[in-house]
Amino acid sequence: MGTALTIAVKRIHEPAGRGDGARFLVDRLWPRGVSKEKAALAAWLKPLSPSDGLRKRYHGATTDSDAAWDAFRLDYFAELDAGSEEVRAALFVLDAASQAGPVTLLYAAKSEERNNAIALREWLERRSF
User: Fold this and answer.
1) For 73-90, b where at least 16 C-beta lie within 10 A, e where not — what string?
2) CA pair distance 77, 82, nearest whole angstrom
3) Pairing with 96, which of 2, 13, 43, 46 sits 20 to 30 Å away (CA)?
4) Residue 5 DSSP label
């Protein structure tokens, strides 16, 4: 079993901070209005983002209900659990960085409570090594 991860979640539009550690964008699309320099990324881990279909289905929901959020998380976790080669490679990068210090998952969504980075952190904290 691995060591506990120190994972922060932050909106990419917020400035980089000293405590961020290695910063990883976990969105499938590059956020508008953010330069690559300003983002100060260690890497853009697209494979750890929800699939286009899942992302569109969740963001296309007419309400931001608890049921829609729970369904999104379950479907997203299933995608991550499937563990494609790209997902495994991205997890290797993230795990290596977490061994060196704190990591911050970056997202562009407006909601601070319900976004894929929050869900990804939950999945990462629950997974078994």
Assistant:
1) bebbbebbeeeeeebeeb
2) 9
3) 13
4) P
In order along its 129 residues, the chain shows pLDDT tens digits of 344 567 999 999 999 998 999 999 999 999 998 998 889 999 999 999 999 888 888 766 655 688 888 988 999 999 999 989 999 999 999 999 999 999 999 999 888 888 999 999 999 988 855
CB 12 within 8 A of CB 104: no
Q: How far apart are CA 87 and CA 126, in angstroms?
A: 16
- Reading the block at residue 50, the tokens are 């929800």
pTM: 0.88
Beta-carbon contacts of 115 under 8 Å, excluding residues fewer than 6 positions away, are: 9, 107, 109
Long-range contacts, 28-33 (Cβ 8 Å, 24+): 28/52, 28/55, 29/108, 31/108, 32/108
Locate 126 and state its tokens. 């629950």
Distance separating alpha carbons of residues 92 and 77, to the nearest angstrom: 17
The gap from C-alpha 70 to its chain's centroid, in whole angstroms, comes to 16
